[in-house]
Amino acid sequence: QNNKDISLLPPDQRDFGIVFQSYALFPNLSVKNNIAFGLKTRKQNKETINQRVNELLELVGLSDHINKFSAQLSGGEQQRVALARALAPSPGLLLLDEPLSALDAKVRQYLRLEIKNLQKKLGVTTIMVTHDQEEALTMADRIILMNKGIIEQEGSPYDLYSNPQTSFAANFIGTTNLLEANKISNNQVEINGSTLECNETINENSVTITIRPEDIKINPDTNEKNIFKGIIKELEFLGSHFRGLVEVDFKSQKTNLRCQFSSEYILQNNIKKNNAVSISLQPAALKVIKK
Question: Could you tell me which residue ranges the ABC transporter domain spans (predicted)?
Fold first, then answer.
């Protein structure tokens, strides 16, 4: 922290706040006294404590709950009290340990935006642990993706989603298709007996190709590249779009690929399971990753 290794410092000297997965609010203390706890241990005077508590309650929108106890609060309200308590001593670093995992989907969606806006407003460096890929993509400025204790890839949310470097990264961040391929030339690969063009340079003889469902073009023009016929095996309605499983007829073997269909396309064309469809695996959308 501030270019200093704080790992070996006593906990009370590390200058960071933490929000636990279970919130860990003191059940015998009111909202006010929960938030004030860290300030009291630092021997702040009463006036300073009251001013800071009121300021934080207003910041997290809980001024009307100042005298309530944790059992009287909803999960989302408890989470905001825990966040205010962590922020009370104005730490140089904030640690969030899956703070939204115990909440329902609607509350999570609301609070992740609230936490992000609060963090930007206060300007405190924040490290958040999460297993929710949507949380990571929407809240982070920078993601460090861990796999068995080792950094798999790091970068901006867009980088990790658009340019995964490994199969694990491609599968963990979003939904994707992974295809084993053999090099034909610098920009051509063979997948299940079929030749596909790829914009990326192929350096290895054996590679893995990934393509996102939304990057597979449905009913492409006849002059487009990497066109294949397929049969829709499954259709899953996801509101704004459908996710389909298409059995693609490669030259030597049929392979299932996840594709994305607009709801408008499905409804206007009365698309059902077992309908035939043509797709294009766009050369620009085929990404080469490490096995």
Answer: 1-173
Alpha carbon 183 to its chain's center: 32
Per-residue pLDDT, 75: 87
Contact 173, 159 (CB under 8 A): no
- Note the helical H segments in the chain: 31-41, 46-59, 75-87, 105-122, 133-139, 157-162, 167-172, 263-268
- Give exposure, 146-162, as e/b (b: 16+ Cβ within 10 Å): eeeeeebbebebeebbe
E strand residue ranges, the chain:
16-19, 93-97, 125-129, 143-147, 150-155, 177-185, 188-191, 194-197, 206-211, 216-218, 227-237, 241-249, 254-262, 276-281, 287-289
Percent of the chain with pLDDT over 70: 99
Backbone angles phi, psi at 84, to 5 degrees: -65, -40
Q: Enumerate residue ranges in the chain where pLDDT < 70.
A: 1, 291
Distance CA 175, CA 173 (A): 7
The H-or-E segment that residue 225 falls in is: none
The residue with tokens 């966040």 is 83
For the domain made up of 175-289, give the CATH fold. Answer: OB fold (Dihydrolipoamide Acetyltransferase, E2P) (2.40.50)
Which strand ranges, in their side-by-side order, compose the sheet holding 216-218?
A: 216-218, 276-281, 227-237, 241-249, 254-262
pTM: 0.81
Length reported for the chain: 291
For the chain, which residues make up each domain, given as ranges?
A: 14-141, 175-289
For residue 91, the one-letter residue type is P
**CATH architecture assignment, domain 14-141:** 3-Layer(aba) Sandwich (3.40)
